[in-house]
Amino acid sequence: MEKIEIDKKAKSNAVVKKQPPKYKNPYMISIVIPLYNEEESIKPLVETVEKKINELARNSWEVIFVDDGSTDNSLNIIKEINAKNPKFKYISFRRNYGKSAALSAGFSYARGRYIGTMDADLQDDPNEFKNMLAKLNEGYDLVSGWKKIRHDPIEKRIPSRFFNYVTSVTSGIKLHDFNCGIKLYKREVIESLQVYGEMHRYLPAFAHWDGFRVTEIPVEHHERKYGKTKFGVARYIRGFLDLLTVVFTTRYLKRPMHFFGLGGTISTIIGLAVWIFLCVEWFMGETSLSNRPLGWFSLALIIVGIQLFSIGLIAELLVKQSFKNSKNYNIKSKQL
């Protein structure tokens, strides 16, 4: 039951204050660690995390392992650790759903005022949470790690730099390492985010677009000791496709005409410009327009432009109907 406490300064006026339930956020910090086939890394990770987080939050912490359908002995090791120390909790998926699903599940069960994330491969250093918490106390809502000195092969670093550059330009928030596993969030950020598909790498952009203050700090990055990376070059291709999805479903979700209309305007203007040029040539005695491939190309551009405009108008009608009674803002504070 929700506890109701009488304000001692206002007993005579029978003023009551509603206190949040004790079970809602009993911890200072929750650490969510998604993992997949990391049996060799788990025990060394637990030893390091327990030591560093105890220094930061004493006993006011929890760690939530999210086993993303591991096929090795990872789950059994986590169960043994949980039996010895209940602060190390776990969620286990029936199959591999991906990192976004693992983070989403961990966020939904985390009960800390601050929620941190890190990978289970021993490359992230839990000691960085102390620096991140200090940065949050400067007025930020989300602190993302930046692997400034990165211990990964060059074929992984170069695509990553290009990916981060394009994402920074597209999203409007400049970060060097969107996909860094170690991050620290204030609880209100987590409660406003929706993590699905493979959108976990864009959480800082989502938070930024929701009006939260996002920053990054350099973090120590260790070499991988056990196993091998679960991600290949294909993830960058999927990442760019996801980026297009993110941009459209956030920046243009409630104004699709701005997205389709821009493309339609550019296509129509180019098509008309080419058509006018061909008409001028025809008036000056050039060959028939029907024999010019450029004429058919300009006509195609005009048709495509009109189609994009039509799609934009239809999308606007759908958006207006869908969001007619919905809230489209995020309140930071209020005094009524």
Entry summary:
With 336 residues, the protein is of the alpha/beta class. The chain has helices at residues 42-57, 74-84, 99-109, 128-136, 154-171, 187-192, 203-209, 234-250, 256-283, 293-322; strands spanning 4-6, 16-18, 27-35, 61-67, 88-92, 112-117, 142-146, 183-186, 214-218.
What does this structure look like?
- The protein has 336 residues and is α/β, with parallel strands linked by helices.
- The chain is built from ten helices and nine strands.
- Strands 5-4-3-6-8-7-9 form a seven-stranded mixed sheet, with helices on both faces.
- The N terminus is likely disordered.
**Amino-to-carboxy terminus distance:** 27 Å
User: What spatial order of strands do you see in the largest sheet?
Assistant: 5-4-3-6-8-7-9
Question: What would the average pLDDT be, to the nearest integer?
Answer: 80
Rg of Cα set: 26 Å
Major beta sheet summary:
7 strands, mixed
- Flag low-confidence runs: 1-23
Protein structure class:
alpha/beta
Task: Provide a count of the helices.
Answer: 10
Record field, number of beta strands: 9
Based on CA inertia axes, which overall geometry fits?
elongated
The amount of helix comes to 40-55%
